[in-house]
Amino acid sequence: MGMKRLVPASFLLIFLLVSCTTAPVTGRRQLILVSEEQSTALGVASYQQIKEQLPVVANTPEARMVERIGIAMAKVVEGAEGFAWEFTLFKDETPNAFALPGGKVGVNTGLFQVAKTEVQLATVMGHEIAHVMAQHSAERMSRDMATQLGLAVLGASTGSQEMVAMVSGVATLGVALPFNRSQESEADRIGLIYMAKAGYDPHAAVDLWTNFAALGGERPPKFLSTHPLPEDRIERIQALIPEAMAYYQP
């Protein structure tokens, strides 16, 4: 192996060896190449930008519900002592919520189309807080960094852009999308435990995802999706409920 090939490959190996951490609850080993300070700074900046772009809903029953659930869950998670948590309701009819590093959680007003009770909303917010605590954003950034480094090594060693493009496509279908789906499933499991610890019955998660399934709309094939299909999600959550119920105190 020539020096040009050896150096980037050596850096990749070093990254893989020294940058591993562990996800909460599941104990899954993670590759994190981004520091918590870096990911938090990106999360805070992105959240501020979203607040400037979307109308913020405040002082309504729904907004107070979002904040109440968020505060209750923030008290039961471990390892977030330095986070400046924010739980914001945005005027957006898309039935969605999101989380950013550093404890920034946003909920769209459109989510109330499917989250019809407080405990169903707690299912979604527990899931989003789980993304934060499991550093899923930093993990995705790290995966992309490692992938780009690997493609650079491949390009340098083969000199073929066609090969790089082909491997990049295979990596998306065979690694990136399944990885995203596994993160979603992991957030479901962690989120169920968070909601249970905060006093919300995990059984409501089945009702929530049943509502999502009933919402309809076109969905991509499973192998092209970034999220598990609703029917798969419901089946998996039903299997996880007994674990979460061990933490449940009304």
Q: How many H/I helical runs?
A: 8
Counting DSSP E segments of at least 2 residues, the number of strands comes to 6
Cα radius of gyration in angstroms: 20 Å
- Based on Cα principal axes, name the global outline: globular
Mean pLDDT: 81
> Level of helix content?
55-70%
Unreliable parts:
1-11, 163-179, 220-225
Domain tally: 1
Entry summary:
The chain has 250 residues and is of the alpha+beta class.
Overall description:
This protein has 250 residues and is an alpha+beta fold. It has one domain (22-245). The protein is built from eight helices and six strands; from the N terminus they run H-E-E-H-E-H-E-E-E-H-H-H-H-H. It has helices spanning 3-18, 36-53, 61-74, 118-133, 136-158, 161-197, 204-215, 230-245, and strands at 20-22, 29-31, 56-57, 86-90, 97-100, 104-108. The strands form two sheets. A four-stranded mixed beta sheet has the order 3-4-6-5. Helix 1 (3-18) packs antiparallel against helix 5, helix 4 (118-133) packs across helix 7 and helix 6 crosses helix 8 (230-245). It starts with a helix and ends in a 5-residue tail after the last helix. Its cofactor is Zn(2+). Belongs to the peptidase M48 family. Residues 65-239 form the Peptidase M48 domain.
Write the layout of secondary structure elements.
Blueprint: H1 3-18, E1 20-22, E2 29-31, H2 36-53, E3 56-57, H3 61-74, E4 86-90, E5 97-100, E6 104-108, H4 118-133, H5 136-158, H6 161-197, H7 204-215, H8 230-245
Parallel strand pairs: 4-6
Antiparallel strand pairs: 1-2, 3-4, 5-6
Helix pairs in contact: 1-5, 3-4, 4-6, 4-7, 5-6, 6-8, 7-8
